[in-house]
Amino acid sequence: MNRRLVISDIHGHGESLLELLTTAQYSPEQDQLVLLGDYIHKGPDSLGTLEIVYSLKQQGAWVIRGNHEQDVLDHKRNQLAAPLTERMRQFLLQMPLWKADDQYIYAHAGVRAGVELQNQSITDLTTIRDEFFHSNFPIRGKQIVFGHTLTSRIGAKFGHILWKDDRIGIDTGAGKRLFLSLVDLTNKISYRKRITTGEIDIIHY
């Protein structure tokens, strides 16, 4: 495996996701791609984005569930252009709530300190904020990679990734028509697209 690439909170901007993967020269055979949830709502094409994510999973990407997918499953909101097909509903149901490798723990919103990963609640993994931000980590020496909360609200420069010793926040606001960021964790690079102009920047950390 050459690189670990991760992206979160795509919010219907599937074509932007594909552009960033092309810019980063993503190779399913060589790179591990991790998608951290919130593929739908707010943006231009939720259902099309889900199809893109489905295809990426077929190629080996890890696809994690976010709170917007959970809300659809819980019938709390739909706001999609058409009803979900049964294939897509099963796709949402089968998405794990977290993944881990030898360096990182991946979850949409974060984790609750003091609770084993297998015992974390759906609510915490998809929506936690303050209790996660104000907790001391790491968990077994791993960094936690998460989305859900705009990084500029938790200490990062506007439009930038939050890099800390114990956690990495990557939601740069595509759902608010700001930026969508694909992060190369291996090389500490962010491929960032400005939603309003389509401009792509490559930022080294």
From TrEMBL:
Enzyme class of the recorded protein, top EC level: hydrolase
InterPro entries the UniProt entry points to: Ap4A_hydrolase, Calcineurin-like_PHP, Metallo-depent_PP-like
Domain Calcineurin-like phosphoesterase: 5-152
Keyword terms: Hydrolase
SUPFAM superfamilies listed in its UniProt record: Metallo-dependent phosphatases
Keyword Thylakoid tagged: no
UniProt-listed Enzyme Commission number(s): 3.1.3.16
Stored Pfam families: Metallophos
GO MF annotation: an example: protein serine/threonine phosphatase activity
Name of this protein: Serine/threonine protein phosphatase 1
Lineage: Bacteria, Bacillati, Bacillota, Bacilli, Bacillales
